[in-house]
Specification:
single chain, 157 residues, Beta-Lactamase, 2 domains, two-stranded antiparallel sheet, 5 helices
Length: 157
């Protein structure tokens, strides 16, 4: 689950808006340059890390950074038990990350399960009001999920 706040949400210029100030344009350019630098770093890291156990935690941490999210994680499916679990977590609060690492839940529950079943990327603006959202993880981990981005990852192993 990824909870993200978009820093560029208010930086779009509408055609009827007054001409943006020089400082606001500079701010947008600096932000864009930082994002490009982060993507470059991510590309270099892919090339340097060939082992999945090294690569996935790095990618999760970079995704959290690029999305300016409080937390990001990869959930994996335990097919034998039909459960989802959190082996890779990047979280602002280490106590929450520790609790998430111990949690498992039915692969039939939640937005992650919906993304997995439909093979679709889901962007949820208010997870608490989405009928697919499984509140049990928030209750057990102590976090409050707000915005969420879920994308299925497939492996051919």
């Amino acid at each position: 689950m990824v909870e993200a706040r978009c820093p560029c949400k208010n930086s779009m210029v509408h055609p009827s808006s007054p001409t943006p100030s020089r400082s606001s344009l500079l701010s947008v350019m600096v932000s864009a340059r930082a994002t490009v630098a982060q993507l470059y770093d991510l590309g270099c890291a892919f090339a340097a890390r060939l082992e999945m156990d090294q690569l996935i935690p790095f990618v999760v941490a970079k995704c959290r950074e690029v999305l300016d999210a409080e937390g990001a994680s990869v959930l994996l499916l335990d097919q034998e038990r039909n459960e989802l679990y959190f082996p890779y977590i990047s979280e602002e609060n280490p106590e929450v990350a520790e609790r998430l690492a111990r949690l498992r839940f039915s692969a039939e529950l939640g937005i992650a399960a919906s993304a997995l079943k439909t093979c679709a990327t889901l962007r949820i603006e208010d997870a608490q009001t989405d009928p697919r959202f499984y509140h049990g993880i928030d209750l057990l981990s102590g976090l409050t999920t707000r915005n969420l981005l879920a994308a299925p990852l497939r492996s051919h192993q």
